[in-house]
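In the lab's daily routine, each protein ends up as an entry in a very long ledger. A line of letters takes care of the sequence, but it says nothing directly about the fold. The fold becomes a row of whole numbers, each drawn from a learned catalogue of backbone shapes. The protein below has been through that process, and both of its lines are reproduced in full:
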Amino acid sequence: MNLNALLDLLPPEFRLQDSAKDARGICELVVDSSLKISIEEQPLTQDLYLYSVVASIAEADPTPLFETLLEAQLFSRELGEGISFGFDRAESAVLIWRKLGGENADSESCTRSLTEFINWAEHWQAKLNAPVVEADESDAGVSMPEHFIRA
């Protein structure tokens, strides 16, 4: 599926048309005036990718942030299936991204995937940009789980 086919499949509430693409061929959707979702086509394979910058990394040591992201991604605990985190070193930014569609994609599955992606992007943008709250000393003890898949 190419980007034009995806734009044709999406319902009118997304208000995306071929004219929504910029000069680079990337379609950008702005949600609630603050979250930018990009849809880009890989030219050789025509695979489509959704991605969004959810945070900038300003910390001297980003290790705690990366630990949070990896923990959330474990077994899709706090991130939708098929959605992953990425790190853009040039921009010092955390992204979430997802490969979208496929040869048999239809309007309903694309809409569902795009909606789920937007919801997770909003969640992570809010979570990663929230003010830091210091933990109590009583929370300092960390125990290992008996299993990894948690209910």
In short: The radius of gyration is 18 Å. The chain is about 25% helix and 25% strand. Residues 59 and 65 are 9 Å apart (CA to CA).
